[in-house]
Amino acid sequence: MGEKEYLDALRYILDQGYEKNNRTGIPTFSLTGIKMIFDLTNNRLPLLTTKKVLWDKVLKELLWFISGKTDANILQDQKVNFWKANSTREFLDNRGLTNNRVGDLGPVYGFNWRHFGTEYIDCDTNYDGKGIDQLQQIIQTLKTDPFSRRIIMTSWDPNNISKMALPPCHLLVQFLVIPIDGELYLDCIMFQRSGDMFLGVPFNIASYAMLTYMIAYVVDMKPRKFVHFIADAHIYNNHLSAIKQQLSNPILEPPQLFFNRKVESIDDFKFEDFNVINYSSAPFIYADMAI
Question: Which of 190, 290, 191, 189 is nearest to 232 (CA)?
Answer without folding.
Answer: 191
